[in-house]
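Before relying on records like the one below, remember that each one covers exactly one chain. Contacts with other chains, cofactors or solvent are not represented anywhere in the record.
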Amino acid sequence: MATSKNNLKEEFLKEVSDGKHRFIDIALDSELPKRIREAVSKLRKFKKVIILGIGGSALGGIAVMRALYRPLKHMEDDSTHFFFLDQIDPDLIYHLSHNLDLKETHFISISKSGDTIEPASLYKLFYQKIVDAGLDPKEHFSFVTGEDGFFAEEAKKIGAIHLILPPYLSGRFSVLSEVGLFPAVLAGINIEEILEGARQAYEEFYTALDLAITQDKLYQEGKIITVVFPYSYRLNRFADWYIQLMAESLGKTKDIGPTPIRAIGPTDQHAQLQLFMEGPRNKQVLFLEVEKHHHDPQIPGENYTLEDLINAEKKGTGQALEDAGIPTQTIKLPYIDAKAVGNLIMTLELQIALLGKMYGIETYKQPGVEAGKKITREILQNS
Protein backbone atom coordinates (compact mmCIF):
# COMPACT_ATOMS: atom_id res chain seq x y z
CA MET A 1 0.00 0.00 0.00
CA ALA A 2 1.30 3.44 -0.89
CA THR A 3 2.47 5.34 2.18
CA SER A 4 1.86 8.90 1.01
CA LYS A 5 -0.90 10.70 -0.80
CA ASN A 6 1.40 12.03 -3.49
CA ASN A 7 2.89 8.60 -4.16
CA LEU A 8 -0.56 7.04 -4.36
CA LYS A 9 -1.74 9.73 -6.76
CA GLU A 10 1.31 9.34 -9.00
CA GLU A 11 0.99 5.56 -9.07
CA PHE A 12 -2.73 5.74 -9.84
CA LEU A 13 -2.31 8.30 -12.64
CA LYS A 14 0.42 6.10 -14.14
CA GLU A 15 -2.11 3.25 -14.18
CA VAL A 16 -4.63 5.57 -15.86
CA SER A 17 -2.14 6.33 -18.62
CA ASP A 18 -1.48 2.60 -18.95
CA GLY A 19 -5.19 1.97 -19.55
CA LYS A 20 -6.07 0.25 -16.29
CA HIS A 21 -8.87 2.58 -15.17
CA ARG A 22 -10.85 2.94 -18.37
CA PHE A 23 -13.98 4.50 -16.84
CA ILE A 24 -11.95 7.72 -16.78
CA ASP A 25 -11.23 7.51 -20.52
CA ILE A 26 -14.95 7.25 -21.24
CA ALA A 27 -15.77 10.33 -19.19
CA LEU A 28 -13.00 12.32 -20.89
CA ASP A 29 -14.08 11.30 -24.43
CA SER A 30 -15.12 14.56 -26.11
CA GLU A 31 -16.95 12.66 -28.87
CA LEU A 32 -19.26 10.80 -26.49
CA PRO A 33 -22.06 13.43 -26.35
CA LYS A 34 -22.06 13.69 -30.13
CA ARG A 35 -22.52 9.93 -30.56
CA ILE A 36 -25.37 9.86 -28.08
CA ARG A 37 -27.15 12.89 -29.51
CA GLU A 38 -26.92 11.47 -33.03
CA ALA A 39 -28.68 8.33 -31.82
CA VAL A 40 -31.34 10.31 -29.97
CA SER A 41 -32.02 12.42 -33.09
CA LYS A 42 -33.27 9.28 -34.84
CA LEU A 43 -36.04 8.75 -32.31
CA ARG A 44 -39.40 10.45 -32.21
CA LYS A 45 -40.81 11.63 -28.89
CA PHE A 46 -42.45 8.89 -26.83
CA LYS A 47 -44.69 9.28 -23.81
CA LYS A 48 -42.98 6.41 -22.02
CA VAL A 49 -39.41 5.16 -22.08
CA ILE A 50 -38.72 1.87 -20.33
CA ILE A 51 -35.13 0.91 -19.64
CA LEU A 52 -34.52 -2.86 -19.52
CA GLY A 53 -31.38 -3.34 -17.45
CA ILE A 54 -30.18 -4.58 -14.09
CA GLY A 55 -27.29 -3.87 -11.73
CA GLY A 56 -24.74 -1.56 -13.33
CA SER A 57 -26.96 -1.21 -16.38
CA ALA A 58 -29.64 0.48 -14.29
CA LEU A 59 -28.51 1.78 -10.89
CA GLY A 60 -26.35 4.65 -12.15
CA GLY A 61 -28.98 5.76 -14.64
CA ILE A 62 -31.64 5.67 -11.94
CA ALA A 63 -29.47 7.86 -9.71
CA VAL A 64 -28.89 10.42 -12.48
CA MET A 65 -32.57 10.53 -13.40
CA ARG A 66 -33.70 10.95 -9.79
CA ALA A 67 -31.23 13.78 -9.30
CA LEU A 68 -31.80 15.72 -12.51
CA TYR A 69 -35.22 14.84 -13.93
CA ARG A 70 -37.46 17.07 -11.86
CA PRO A 71 -38.95 15.21 -8.86
CA LEU A 72 -42.44 13.88 -9.58
CA LYS A 73 -42.18 15.00 -13.21
CA HIS A 74 -43.45 11.53 -14.12
CA MET A 75 -46.83 12.63 -12.74
CA GLU A 76 -47.15 15.47 -15.26
CA ASP A 77 -49.31 14.65 -18.29
CA ASP A 78 -47.10 16.39 -20.84
CA SER A 79 -43.85 14.79 -19.67
CA THR A 80 -42.11 11.68 -20.89
CA HIS A 81 -42.30 9.02 -18.20
CA PHE A 82 -39.09 7.04 -17.59
CA PHE A 83 -39.18 3.67 -15.88
CA PHE A 84 -36.12 1.57 -15.13
CA LEU A 85 -37.31 -2.02 -15.18
CA ASP A 86 -34.60 -3.72 -13.14
CA GLN A 87 -37.04 -6.27 -11.79
CA ILE A 88 -38.48 -9.53 -13.12
CA ASP A 89 -41.26 -9.91 -10.55
CA PRO A 90 -44.06 -11.66 -12.50
CA ASP A 91 -46.90 -9.61 -11.01
CA LEU A 92 -45.14 -6.30 -11.70
CA ILE A 93 -44.37 -7.27 -15.29
CA TYR A 94 -47.92 -8.51 -15.89
CA HIS A 95 -49.56 -5.31 -14.71
CA LEU A 96 -47.02 -3.10 -16.47
CA SER A 97 -47.35 -4.91 -19.78
CA HIS A 98 -51.15 -4.78 -19.63
CA ASN A 99 -51.26 -1.04 -18.90
CA LEU A 100 -48.85 0.26 -21.54
CA ASP A 101 -49.81 2.19 -24.62
CA LEU A 102 -47.29 0.36 -26.78
CA LYS A 103 -47.59 2.89 -29.61
CA GLU A 104 -46.19 5.53 -27.27
CA THR A 105 -43.55 3.39 -25.56
CA HIS A 106 -39.86 3.00 -26.39
CA PHE A 107 -37.65 0.35 -24.79
CA ILE A 108 -33.91 0.76 -24.19
CA SER A 109 -32.24 -2.61 -23.71
CA ILE A 110 -28.97 -2.31 -21.78
CA SER A 111 -26.42 -5.03 -21.08
CA LYS A 112 -22.66 -4.91 -21.58
CA SER A 113 -22.49 -8.57 -22.55
CA GLY A 114 -25.83 -8.50 -24.33
CA ASP A 115 -26.72 -11.81 -22.72
CA THR A 116 -27.76 -10.87 -19.19
CA ILE A 117 -30.72 -13.15 -18.60
CA GLU A 118 -33.07 -10.71 -16.84
CA PRO A 119 -33.11 -7.86 -19.43
CA ALA A 120 -32.85 -10.39 -22.28
CA SER A 121 -35.96 -12.19 -21.00
CA LEU A 122 -37.85 -8.92 -20.62
CA TYR A 123 -36.80 -7.87 -24.10
CA LYS A 124 -38.20 -11.10 -25.57
CA LEU A 125 -41.47 -10.54 -23.73
CA PHE A 126 -41.95 -6.94 -24.85
CA TYR A 127 -40.64 -7.63 -28.36
CA GLN A 128 -43.43 -10.17 -28.84
CA LYS A 129 -46.01 -7.71 -27.55
CA ILE A 130 -44.77 -5.06 -30.01
CA VAL A 131 -44.96 -7.55 -32.89
CA ASP A 132 -48.40 -8.80 -31.84
CA ALA A 133 -49.62 -5.19 -31.79
CA GLY A 134 -48.54 -4.78 -35.42
CA LEU A 135 -45.83 -2.25 -34.54
CA ASP A 136 -42.32 -1.95 -35.99
CA PRO A 137 -39.71 -3.17 -33.46
CA LYS A 138 -37.10 -0.91 -35.09
CA GLU A 139 -39.02 2.12 -33.89
CA HIS A 140 -39.70 0.83 -30.39
CA PHE A 141 -36.34 -0.61 -29.34
CA SER A 142 -32.80 0.68 -29.02
CA PHE A 143 -29.78 -1.10 -27.58
CA VAL A 144 -26.80 -0.16 -25.44
CA THR A 145 -24.53 -3.18 -25.51
CA GLY A 146 -21.24 -4.60 -26.78
CA GLU A 147 -20.40 -5.52 -30.35
CA ASP A 148 -21.41 -9.14 -29.80
CA GLY A 149 -24.06 -11.02 -27.88
CA PHE A 150 -27.82 -11.44 -28.07
CA PHE A 151 -28.69 -7.74 -27.91
CA ALA A 152 -26.19 -6.90 -30.66
CA GLU A 153 -27.70 -9.61 -32.84
CA GLU A 154 -31.22 -8.30 -32.20
CA ALA A 155 -30.20 -4.73 -32.99
CA LYS A 156 -28.83 -5.87 -36.32
CA LYS A 157 -31.83 -8.09 -37.06
CA ILE A 158 -34.43 -5.36 -36.57
CA GLY A 159 -32.24 -2.47 -37.74
CA ALA A 160 -32.50 -0.63 -34.43
CA ILE A 161 -30.20 1.94 -32.83
CA HIS A 162 -27.15 0.24 -31.31
CA LEU A 163 -24.82 2.24 -29.11
CA ILE A 164 -21.72 0.08 -28.69
CA LEU A 165 -20.11 -0.33 -25.28
CA PRO A 166 -16.40 -1.10 -25.10
CA PRO A 167 -15.63 -4.56 -23.67
CA TYR A 168 -13.28 -3.21 -20.99
CA LEU A 169 -15.91 -1.05 -19.25
CA SER A 170 -17.26 -2.49 -16.00
CA GLY A 171 -21.03 -2.06 -15.65
CA ARG A 172 -20.99 -0.39 -12.25
CA PHE A 173 -18.48 2.16 -13.59
CA SER A 174 -20.49 2.82 -16.77
CA VAL A 175 -22.90 5.55 -15.67
CA LEU A 176 -20.82 8.23 -17.45
CA SER A 177 -21.04 6.26 -20.70
CA GLU A 178 -23.97 5.58 -23.03
CA VAL A 179 -25.46 3.44 -20.25
CA GLY A 180 -26.40 6.40 -18.07
CA LEU A 181 -26.23 9.24 -20.57
CA PHE A 182 -28.44 7.92 -23.40
CA PRO A 183 -31.56 7.90 -21.18
CA ALA A 184 -30.44 11.23 -19.72
CA VAL A 185 -30.41 12.92 -23.14
CA LEU A 186 -33.90 11.57 -23.85
CA ALA A 187 -34.95 13.26 -20.61
CA GLY A 188 -33.49 16.59 -21.74
CA ILE A 189 -30.62 16.49 -19.26
CA ASN A 190 -27.44 18.34 -20.21
CA ILE A 191 -24.90 15.54 -20.42
CA GLU A 192 -22.13 17.90 -21.50
CA GLU A 193 -22.38 19.52 -18.07
CA ILE A 194 -22.43 16.12 -16.36
CA LEU A 195 -19.17 15.25 -18.11
CA GLU A 196 -17.71 18.68 -17.34
CA GLY A 197 -18.40 18.05 -13.65
CA ALA A 198 -16.77 14.63 -13.93
CA ARG A 199 -13.68 16.17 -15.51
CA GLN A 200 -13.49 18.73 -12.72
CA ALA A 201 -13.60 15.96 -10.10
CA TYR A 202 -10.79 14.14 -11.89
CA GLU A 203 -8.71 17.31 -11.96
CA GLU A 204 -9.39 17.97 -8.28
CA PHE A 205 -8.52 14.32 -7.47
CA TYR A 206 -7.49 14.95 -3.87
CA THR A 207 -11.15 15.06 -2.79
CA ALA A 208 -11.56 11.44 -3.86
CA LEU A 209 -8.11 10.53 -2.57
CA ASP A 210 -8.84 11.95 0.88
CA LEU A 211 -12.16 10.07 0.97
CA ALA A 212 -10.38 6.82 0.11
CA ILE A 213 -7.57 7.28 2.63
CA THR A 214 -9.99 8.14 5.44
CA GLN A 215 -12.29 5.27 4.48
CA ASP A 216 -9.36 2.84 4.62
CA LYS A 217 -7.98 4.21 7.90
CA LEU A 218 -11.36 3.75 9.57
CA TYR A 219 -11.77 0.32 8.02
CA GLN A 220 -8.42 -0.75 9.46
CA GLU A 221 -9.66 0.48 12.84
CA GLY A 222 -12.61 -1.90 12.68
CA LYS A 223 -15.20 0.35 11.03
CA ILE A 224 -15.98 -2.32 8.44
CA ILE A 225 -19.51 -1.12 7.65
CA THR A 226 -19.98 2.05 5.61
CA VAL A 227 -23.36 3.73 5.93
CA VAL A 228 -24.05 5.91 2.90
CA PHE A 229 -26.54 8.50 4.16
CA PRO A 230 -27.97 11.01 1.65
CA TYR A 231 -29.96 13.91 3.07
CA SER A 232 -31.75 14.64 -0.19
CA TYR A 233 -34.61 12.97 -2.03
CA ARG A 234 -32.87 13.76 -5.29
CA LEU A 235 -29.68 12.02 -4.17
CA ASN A 236 -31.18 9.03 -2.38
CA ARG A 237 -30.75 6.61 -5.29
CA PHE A 238 -27.03 7.32 -5.28
CA ALA A 239 -26.99 5.18 -2.14
CA ASP A 240 -28.13 2.13 -4.13
CA TRP A 241 -25.55 2.75 -6.87
CA TYR A 242 -22.76 3.33 -4.35
CA ILE A 243 -23.61 0.09 -2.57
CA GLN A 244 -23.03 -1.84 -5.80
CA LEU A 245 -19.94 0.21 -6.60
CA MET A 246 -18.30 -0.60 -3.28
CA ALA A 247 -19.56 -4.14 -2.72
CA GLU A 248 -18.89 -5.54 -6.18
CA SER A 249 -15.56 -3.75 -6.56
CA LEU A 250 -13.98 -4.39 -3.17
CA GLY A 251 -15.56 -7.61 -1.91
CA LYS A 252 -12.99 -9.94 -3.45
CA THR A 253 -11.27 -11.78 -0.59
CA LYS A 254 -12.21 -13.24 2.80
CA ASP A 255 -9.90 -10.75 4.47
CA ILE A 256 -11.02 -7.52 2.80
CA GLY A 257 -14.59 -6.40 2.28
CA PRO A 258 -15.93 -3.01 3.35
CA THR A 259 -19.67 -3.56 3.65
CA PRO A 260 -21.95 -0.71 2.49
CA ILE A 261 -25.49 -0.18 3.75
CA ARG A 262 -28.07 2.45 2.86
CA ALA A 263 -29.73 4.99 5.09
CA ILE A 264 -31.90 7.92 3.94
CA GLY A 265 -32.12 11.17 5.84
CA PRO A 266 -34.11 12.16 7.71
CA THR A 267 -36.26 8.99 7.37
CA ASP A 268 -33.71 6.65 8.91
CA GLN A 269 -33.23 8.87 11.93
CA HIS A 270 -36.48 7.16 12.89
CA ALA A 271 -35.43 3.67 11.84
CA GLN A 272 -31.71 2.78 11.81
CA LEU A 273 -30.11 5.60 13.79
CA GLN A 274 -30.70 3.83 17.12
CA LEU A 275 -28.51 0.95 15.89
CA PHE A 276 -25.84 3.31 14.62
CA MET A 277 -25.75 5.24 17.90
CA GLU A 278 -25.79 2.43 20.44
CA GLY A 279 -25.12 -0.77 18.51
CA PRO A 280 -21.75 -2.33 17.59
CA ARG A 281 -18.99 0.21 16.98
CA ASN A 282 -18.20 -1.18 13.53
CA LYS A 283 -19.61 1.62 11.37
CA GLN A 284 -18.49 4.75 9.59
CA VAL A 285 -20.89 7.13 7.86
CA LEU A 286 -20.66 8.91 4.51
CA PHE A 287 -23.19 11.74 4.29
CA LEU A 288 -24.38 13.27 1.02
CA GLU A 289 -25.66 16.78 1.66
CA VAL A 290 -27.13 19.60 -0.45
CA GLU A 291 -26.37 23.13 0.68
CA LYS A 292 -28.92 25.00 -1.45
CA HIS A 293 -32.12 23.43 -2.79
CA HIS A 294 -34.12 24.46 -5.84
CA HIS A 295 -37.09 25.42 -3.66
CA ASP A 296 -37.39 26.31 0.01
CA PRO A 297 -40.92 26.57 1.44
CA GLN A 298 -41.37 28.58 4.60
CA ILE A 299 -43.09 26.73 7.46
CA PRO A 300 -46.16 28.79 8.54
CA GLY A 301 -45.87 30.10 12.08
CA GLU A 302 -42.19 29.12 12.35
CA ASN A 303 -38.94 30.97 11.78
CA TYR A 304 -37.41 28.25 9.60
CA THR A 305 -37.83 26.81 6.14
CA LEU A 306 -37.77 23.17 5.01
CA GLU A 307 -34.19 23.70 3.85
CA ASP A 308 -33.28 24.97 7.31
CA LEU A 309 -34.93 21.88 8.80
CA ILE A 310 -33.33 19.20 6.64
CA ASN A 311 -29.88 20.77 6.91
CA ALA A 312 -30.24 21.15 10.67
CA GLU A 313 -31.27 17.51 10.94
CA LYS A 314 -28.25 16.40 8.95
CA LYS A 315 -25.94 18.55 11.09
CA GLY A 316 -27.56 17.33 14.29
CA THR A 317 -27.40 13.68 13.28
CA GLY A 318 -23.76 14.02 12.25
CA GLN A 319 -22.82 15.70 15.52
CA ALA A 320 -24.68 13.07 17.55
CA LEU A 321 -22.87 10.29 15.72
CA GLU A 322 -19.47 11.92 16.20
CA ASP A 323 -20.23 12.47 19.91
CA ALA A 324 -21.08 8.76 20.16
CA GLY A 325 -17.75 7.81 18.57
CA ILE A 326 -19.10 7.03 15.10
CA PRO A 327 -16.81 8.73 12.54
CA THR A 328 -18.38 10.54 9.61
CA GLN A 329 -17.40 12.10 6.31
CA THR A 330 -19.56 14.46 4.26
CA ILE A 331 -19.73 15.21 0.55
CA LYS A 332 -21.56 18.52 0.27
CA LEU A 333 -23.05 19.60 -3.04
CA PRO A 334 -23.57 23.37 -3.16
CA TYR A 335 -26.54 22.82 -5.48
CA ILE A 336 -27.96 19.91 -7.48
CA ASP A 337 -27.33 20.46 -11.17
CA ALA A 338 -25.80 18.41 -13.96
CA LYS A 339 -22.26 19.56 -13.23
CA ALA A 340 -22.53 18.75 -9.52
CA VAL A 341 -23.95 15.30 -10.28
CA GLY A 342 -21.12 14.52 -12.70
CA ASN A 343 -18.63 15.66 -10.08
CA LEU A 344 -20.22 13.41 -7.46
CA ILE A 345 -20.19 10.36 -9.75
CA MET A 346 -16.53 10.73 -10.68
CA THR A 347 -15.52 11.45 -7.08
CA LEU A 348 -17.11 8.24 -5.83
CA GLU A 349 -15.82 6.16 -8.73
CA LEU A 350 -12.30 7.45 -8.09
CA GLN A 351 -12.62 6.74 -4.38
CA ILE A 352 -13.53 3.10 -5.00
CA ALA A 353 -10.87 2.66 -7.69
CA LEU A 354 -8.26 4.08 -5.31
CA LEU A 355 -9.38 1.74 -2.53
CA GLY A 356 -9.09 -1.18 -4.92
CA LYS A 357 -5.53 -0.17 -5.67
CA MET A 358 -4.74 0.26 -1.97
CA TYR A 359 -6.08 -3.22 -1.22
CA GLY A 360 -4.26 -4.77 -4.17
CA ILE A 361 -7.39 -6.35 -5.66
CA GLU A 362 -8.93 -6.58 -9.13
CA THR A 363 -11.50 -3.81 -8.89
CA TYR A 364 -13.31 -4.22 -12.19
CA LYS A 365 -14.29 -7.90 -12.24
CA GLN A 366 -16.95 -9.74 -10.23
CA PRO A 367 -16.33 -13.49 -10.38
CA GLY A 368 -18.44 -14.05 -7.29
CA VAL A 369 -21.69 -13.37 -9.14
CA GLU A 370 -21.04 -15.86 -11.92
CA ALA A 371 -21.70 -19.03 -9.89
CA GLY A 372 -25.33 -18.10 -9.22
CA LYS A 373 -25.87 -17.19 -12.87
CA LYS A 374 -24.51 -20.56 -13.99
CA ILE A 375 -26.72 -22.50 -11.58
CA THR A 376 -29.76 -20.46 -12.65
CA ARG A 377 -29.22 -21.39 -16.29
CA GLU A 378 -28.76 -25.05 -15.38
CA ILE A 379 -32.03 -25.04 -13.42
CA LEU A 380 -33.89 -23.48 -16.35
CA GLN A 381 -32.36 -25.90 -18.84
CA ASN A 382 -33.37 -28.89 -16.72
CA SER A 383 -36.88 -27.70 -15.93
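The chain has a mean pLDDT of 95.
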